[in-house]
Design a protein that fits this description.
By secondary structure, the protein is α+β, with helices and mostly antiparallel strands. The chain is globular. Helix 1 packs across helix 3. Helix content is 52%, strand content 12%. The protein is built from seven helices and three strands, in the order H-H-E-E-H-E-H-H-H-H. The protein has a single domain, classed as Sufe protein. Chain: A, CATH 3.90.1010.10. It has helices spanning 13-25, 30-42, 85-98, 103-108, 113-116, 119-122, 125-146; strands spanning 65-72, 75-82, 101-102. The model has no long low-confidence stretch (mean pLDDT 93).
Length: 147
Amino acid sequence: MEAVFVQPREETATEAIEAIGEELSLFDDWEERYRYIIDLGRQLPPFPSVWCNEEHRVPGCQSQVWLQNYKEGERLYFSGTSDAAIVCGLVALLLRVYSGRSCAEIEKTSPSFLRDLGLVQALSTNRGNGVQAMARAIQKAAAIARG
């Protein structure tokens, strides 16, 4: 089952945010960045269809978004998907930052990086609100897992 959860690539959430920022800066415009983000979504681990239900759905998203997590020791791992390609890519970005981190690190890592990287502003209002709703759902899961 662990194979469906995103493993961290960078040591910390801050390093993941910095790496994402560097990667996005390689592209000249948002159309190219969108293609890159969509490609990231295609690389997400498979999300079991049995989790595509109301229990796992993230409210507040224009598209359908589903997240699942499990705790191993102090770390919380996430899996996710969406029915929209660009949103799958946004899920991939969020999971790169948050998955495999301690609950405390997840809770202290503000989703303001989404605005700092220009992602929220580059998206439609509904998609921008949706990606922020996904970040809130991840942080809520960390608070619950921490107890």
